[in-house]
Automatic annotation (TrEMBL):
Gene Ontology terms for molecular function: transmembrane transporter activity
Keyword Transport set for record: yes
Protein name as annotated: TRAP transporter small permease protein
Gene Ontology cellular component annotations, sorted alphabetically: plasma membrane
Membrane topology of the entry: Multi-pass membrane protein
Domain of life, per lineage: Bacteria
Subcellular location: Cell inner membrane
Pfam (any one): DctQ
Transmembrane residue ranges: 12-32, 52-70, 91-114, 134-159
Length: 202
């Protein structure tokens, strides 16, 4: 399987995870609004809105990190690196990716270990609902593992390009876009959305 095919599948999975997370956030927002209205006008509220909302935000954030990595959306400070020639910028990009992968490997490993400990201890939340902690923690850990896998995939590709001295390819895939490129991309995306959106009729 080629890199392009593998990347396409990874992007598809990440897209679906983000779509599911987005709809989940919509549902969470509705749940919160209903809970606030019930508390205001009926002196009643659902238990666990804040608890499960916190779990869901942690899971959605972890899943979104992978999509951000694929789209070069993670914030980076390039005040110094942009002063270097192409080869230097490419090396910095690979080093930054490697450090991010190393950090996420540690975090994901700790998350998996934490999930196992919660499961083996039968740990429950200190709330009225008494939710088994391993359930939200396992989903959160899986999202972090997915992000780590995406970083590993990009890192293997980057090392391959680095060995072939394809610095332009590395910068195109991993490098931070300049302001002009980002603005042009946003304008093109907005025009594409307008072109595909249904026309209003009077």
């Amino acid at each position: 399987m080629s890199f392009q095919n593998t990347e396409a599948r990874i992007r598809t999975i990440s897209d679906w995870l983000c779509i599911a997370g987005g709809w989940g956030l919509v549902g969470l927002s509705i749940w919160i609004v209903v809970n606030v209205l019930l508390r205001k006008f009926a002196s009643f509220s659902f238990q666990g809105v804040d608890e499960y909302g916190g779990y869901f935000l942690a899971i959605v954030s972890a899943a979104g990190f992978a999509k951000a990595a694929l789209d070069k959306a993670h914030v980076r400070i390039d005040v110094v690196t942009r002063l270097f020639p192409l080869a230097g910028r490419a090396i910095f990009d690979v080093v930054a990716l490697g450090l991010l992968f190393a950090m996420m490997w540690i975090i994901a490993s700790k998350a998996v270990l934490l999930t196992y400990e919660s499961w083996s201890m039968g740990a429950l939340t200190p709330s009225v609902l008494r939710t088994p902690l391993w359930i939200p923690q396992s989903i959160w850990a899986l999202a972090l593992v997915w992000f780590t896998f995406v970083l590993a995939f990009l890192l293997v590709w980057a090392f391959g390009r680095l060995l072939r001295a394809d610095f332009a390819g590395i910068e195109d895939k991993l490098g931070q876009d300049d302001i002009e490129t980002e603005v042009a991309a946003e304008i093109a995306d907005a025009r594409a959305r307008l072109a595909t959106s249904p026309k209003e009729t009077v």
